[in-house]
Amino acid sequence: MSTFAGYAPYYDRLNREKDYAAEASFVLDLVRKHCPQARSLLELGCGTGAHARYLSEAGMNIHGVDSSLPMLERARARQETLPPEVAKRMVFSQGDIRQIRIGETFDAVISLFHVVSYQVSNEDLRRCFVTAKDHLKPGGVFVFDCWYGPAVLSDRPQARVRRWEDDESSIIRIAEPVLCPNENIVNVHYTIFVRKRDGSETPVLEELHRMRYLFQPEIEMLASEESLEMIESREWMSQSPPGFHSWNACFVVRG
Hints:
The protein is an alpha/beta fold. It has helices at 11-14, 20-34, 50-57, 69-80, 84-87, 122-134, 149-154, 216-225, and strands spanning 40-44, 61-66, 90-94, 106-111, 136-148, 160-165, 169-180, 185-196, 205-214, 229-235, 248-254.
């Protein structure tokens, strides 16, 4: 099982209730708060380009990076549906966010939808921060969200079943998490059943998503080790600081 290998064809349908426009606006407000003249963004882990679409519509030039070719194919297909003046502000590249070097710098680096939490080892996290630093212009900011440790340990992950239906098919996704407290990791085993409207079934999809939950002091330490400074933390999509009920927290680090 490899992360997003079989998941990619259903990714947008499984996340269709996600308000990408509002999330892009929230992130852009944070970027502009700390970097008012920002015009260029590097997105680490851009997925199918849903956030990139709204950020480019807001006038930002955005370069999205993802390791999954199927996800990037969907991002480029999305790009082709947009007006030319929006599409021209979007670029996508395949690469590992721990290693990739674009060869240019940006006003801000962003990493959304828990991409940083997929960096499960200390070295993975360090290399992610180095990538962000190497692509930031002086005074630029790195904005990212992640699973927040105090909330994960207060409101323990539980098995969940979700169902979706559309004109093409019905989808059932079972998420079975296992908490690994000595590693600060949750192993989430996904099983996805897809039945098409014509009565046919696809093979059962299984993937393991390993998620690192993080704490503010370790983020401050990671930033400091790369000569960065953590300057703000929030509950995701909120003006409040993260707490025991904030599974998703957002951090701003200055270069």
